[in-house]
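For reproducibility, we list the full input for the FE2/S2 (inorganic) cluster complex.
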Amino acid sequence: MTKIRAPFEPAPWPRRLRSQEWYGGTSRDNIYHRGWLKNQGYPHDLFDGRPVIGILNTWSDLAPCNGHLRELAEKVKAGVWEAGGFPLEVPVFSASENTYRPTAMMYRNLAAMAVEETIRAQPIDGVVLMVGCDKTTPSLLMGAASVDLPAITVTGGPMLNGWFRNERVGSGTALWQMSEAIKAGTMTQAEFLEAEQAMSRSSGTCNTMGTASTMASMAEALGMALSGNAAIPAVDSRRRVMAQLTGRRIVQMVKDDLKPSDILTREAFENAIRTNGAIGGSTNAVVHLLALAGRVGIDLTLDDWDRLGRDVPTIVNLMPSGKYLMEEFFYAGGLPVVLKRLGEAGMLHKDALTVSGESVWDEVKDVRNWNEDVILPTEKALTAAGGIAVLKGNLAPSGAVLKPSAASPALMVHRGRAVVFEDIDDYKRKINDPDLDIDETCIMVLKNCGPRGYPGMAEVGNMGLPPKVLKKGITDMVRISDARMSGTAYGTVVLHTTPEAAAGGPLAIVRDGDFIELDVPNRRLHLDVAEQEIAARLAAWQNRSARPAGGYAMLYHDHVTGADTGADFDFLRGCRGNAVPKDSH
Ligand code: FES
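The corresponding predicted structure, in tokenized form, follows.
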């Protein structure tokens, strides 16, 4: 029999890595861990102490936005091999936006928990987080942050531009527009079906500045992805180059022991918040970054979002706030151009460290803007104050959010009569009723759609307008809820109202006919009902949402926190580290 064996040299690495607790020795346990992996044909010298890199892949046939990540993982592996690491691809929970019910958000924390345990329990020295669809990015970042081993993100990249009848079709954004057009009678169902394929021309994530593109941008702005990662289209050859470079880089990060806790500093979060304002990013970034900050012990608050984003002009002219799509953002120079602009405006912590080992400023200072219609000059910004507006008042004591760049300027100060929907089913029952007592001056109020109420805080806050209003040519009304909204959506929509209705927040006691005042410039959300009456209603309030009888839904119900702290589980906040668990063999 041929002896296949390379010399077992002492580890060439600067220190003994944690994977050696499994692989580095001659004990029965070492042989058990190593020997079984050898059934895949790995030579013995791969266990010599080199970094074992877990490539955490959210590929799934049921996560089409991440459907190309298996192919992309091969490029990551190539990079890891080149740099002298040992890559092992690991499938992890993939909370896909477009299939999970009641909402993918309900599973973000489950995915994060699974990722955390997957990393800690296994012989892994560093991780590449392969993500894309909305919840996959925050869930893997959260899980990795709670372990604090070297980690780097590579996203799958956006789909190519959608085109329908010579018009750009933005993922999600077009869906909302067209479904309203059908209700208004200006589009047929047959045309809608024809547009469906045009919307999704290639592999990749939503091509608007929706939540997926926003979170890819957040990962880059936080310093957790290589510079330029966010905007490269999924099918562009440069996406594969990025994957390979990411694979190379993680090996060096392990050698340097460069961990999330070194990168995810308060300065990094402040950079990300300002970036979100500049790109007109999704309101979902608020809950995800608050949750991520909680994992690394950064005391980030809703007030930080308002304070830091207030003066940031939205300069990225992408749907849903603007005109273009991610493909054009990439051609214009992508996120590095935006970060450079923030730096020039004194709105960037330039020294913040990134996964490259360089500062964010070193990464972006020499880039150029190649299209000033896509990345706008400040004087042509879509909105001068583009950050997330955080509203407070007796209707939202702990806060609510609104995205000014996606809202109607004429509605930013508005007083209207409430038309109340007790939950999403109530809304669906009533909204198409021609006898519904509503007009465009009213404020639509949706309750029981928060983290605990829905459950999962579904993206239903941008509830469609009633057909009788749409038929007048009206396209926006003030809407208030404790829900979230898709990052691809738009409108004067107040979201994440906290405390949520299902937790007994004041939203729960709003009644038809009450008057509500929205004053975005003064950050005020006020229920114009006498204090005594509010107190009496709250005292009489009864919780409508039943506690689930068991399973994950019960865990979720019992432990999810409010939107103002990121809707994480109370017991998952913080970093639990990467100490090697005991061996039981
Ligand atoms: Fe997956 Fe938009 S639905 S990225």
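The radius of gyration is 24 Å. The longest strand covers residues 413-421. Both points were considered when choosing residues for closer inspection.
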